[in-house]
Structures are given as C-alpha cells and as structure tokens.
Specification:
By secondary structure, this protein is an alpha+beta fold. The chain contains 2 helices and 5 strands. It has one domain (about 10-105).
C-alpha cells in the first residue's frame, strides 16, 4: 500500500508487558511488570519506557528492542549500582526507580 507524500501511516504496535529483561549474560527479574510502548513510526520502530527514561529506535522491531535491552543493562550498571555520591540528583532518582523495579539479577549461560 502506498502513501501520498506528506501523509502519515497509523502507527503499528502497542504496549508490551515485561516481567523480566534478558541480556546476553543476565536475566533481570522484575518485582512487577512494566509497560514498554512499542510502535512503528513511518518505518522506524520505537520502544519507550518513561519511568526508566529509555527511548530507543531502530530500523526493525528487533533492532529497537535489542537497543532497549542494552540501555536497560547499561543504566543498571552505570546508575543503579553506583554510589549516590557519584550521581546527580536526577540519576539518584532513576537509580531508586531501577532498584524498586528490579527484584533480582541472575547470571545466564
């Protein structure tokens, strides 16, 4: 189906309910499910979780989700596991959000 120049398509996607995040080496088990908005914006896939301040995009759904997982893991390592004295006030707030959301972190092979 073609779209005239200047028109927009209705975004595809919706909300993903996530109870855990699997990376290449760890599984982050969440206390309660979180909602991740997933949508196709004119051929660019977007994943967004406002409470975690993650907004990722990619040319495919898989690429955008992979980037989301990488951001989640990076934020865990660089913010949630960091001493408060080394974080800005905003980062301390984000750290508390991660610590409230993540129940456990397990190594995977």
């Amino acid at each position: 189906m073609s779209h005239p120049a200047g028109s927009t398509r209705r975004p595809k996607g919706g909300k993903k309910v996530i109870s855990g995040v699997l990376t290449g080496s760890r599984f982050f088990r969440l206390r309660n499910p979180i909602y991740v908005n997933e949508r196709d914006e004119n051929g660019i896939w977007v994943h967004e979780c406002k409470p975690l301040r993650i907004y990722t995009f990619g040319e495919s759904r898989e690429e955008s989700w992979r980037t989301f997982v990488e951001f989640f893991e990076c934020n865990w390592d660089s913010i949630a596991r960091q001493k408060d004295s080394k974080l800005t006030l905003d980062a301390q707030e984000l750290k508390r959000t991660y610590l409230d959301i993540v129940e456990s972190v397990d190594r995977v092979l």
